[in-house]
């Protein structure tokens, strides 16, 4: 990406850190500004493993997409997508099945702008404005419906958004609405940072992200709370696990003590 293409757009306040651009910084990208880097470094000062967690989550995404395409999924809705990178969902899926349809969903104008520019020449992929907390509006979006046939199984990926949404917003209900709206045979892939361990870093990290997001609620969860997002679905092996243990490409590399704490799983809808 050229330096010119990374200049802030009109109306973009680069003095305010942004979750997507912080994530880009953790991944070693260049689509970030000084405020994003400052907030990201505050996170790393508390928990240096967050950079590794971001890379593990990216690898988990690739494995999930390959698995789902292998299960016959040719329609993907990616909710809370981040900035485009080298291995996006559509790239992984369309390498296997070229006609796979992918809809990226975000409220972030930075993400939407980048995504639309990146996807402009891909007829099977698009980006729409929306979020997991407004599932009915999302599934009625004309641009989404242009690519996705909701009478056929769809893969819904929510791999990073839920960990920033507090219980006060009732994200479990929103995921349940999505679950009920898609047909039998659909799959859900969910990822979430958990605080089963590393309790000593929870409070300072929560404070940083509250400041970044302009919220006062605590959105942190333990694994049993994340498991509730799969209610009414059938988890596929190996269930909800630390992401490095989810169908690893190299099982030996996934062994050892977990020093990172992002969990994820995939489940299928088996009943209407």
From TrEMBL:
Keywords noted in UniProt: Methyltransferase, Transferase
Xref: InterPro entries: SAM-dependent_MTases_sf, SAM_dep_MeTrfase_SAV2177_type
Molecular function GO terms recorded: methyltransferase activity
Repeat keyword on record: no
Domain of life, per lineage: Bacteria
Entry keyword annotation includes Methyltransferase: yes
GO terms classed as biological process: methylation
The protein, known as: SAM-dependent methyltransferase
């Amino acid at each position: 990406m050229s330096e010119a293409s990374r200049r802030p757009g009109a109306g973009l306040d680069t003095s305010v850190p942004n979750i997507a651009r912080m994530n880009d910084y953790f991944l070693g990208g260049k689509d970030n500004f000084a405020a994003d880097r400052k907030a990201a470094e505050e996170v790393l000062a508390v928990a240096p493993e967050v950079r590794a967690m971001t890379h593990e989550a990216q690898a988990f995404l690739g494995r999930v997409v390959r698995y789902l395409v292998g299960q016959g999924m040719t329609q993907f809705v990616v909710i809370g997508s981040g900035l485009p990178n080298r291995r996006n969902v559509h790239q992984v899926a369309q390498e296997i099945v070229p006609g796979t349809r992918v809809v990226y969903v975000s409220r972030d104008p930075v993400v939407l702008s980048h995504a639309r520019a990146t996807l402009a020449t891909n007829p099977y992929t698009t980006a729409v404005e929306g979020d997991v907390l407004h599932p009915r509006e999302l599934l009625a979006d004309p641009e989404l419906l242009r690519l996705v046939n909701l009478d056929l199984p769809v893969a819904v990926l929510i791999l990073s958004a839920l960990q920033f949404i507090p219980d006060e917003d009732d994200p479990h209900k929103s995921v349940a609405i999505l679950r009920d709206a898609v047909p039998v045979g659909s799959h859900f892939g969910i990822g979430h940072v958990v605080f089963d361990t590393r309790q000593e870093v929870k409070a300072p990290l929560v404070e940083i992200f509250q400041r970044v997001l302009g919220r006062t609620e605590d959105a942190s969860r333990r694994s049993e709370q994340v498991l509730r997002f799969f209610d009414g679905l059938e988890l596929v092996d190996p269930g909800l696990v630390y992401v490095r243990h989810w169908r690893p490409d190299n099982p030996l590399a996934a062994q050892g003590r977990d020093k990172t704490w992002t969990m994820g799983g995939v489940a299928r809808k088996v009943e209407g």
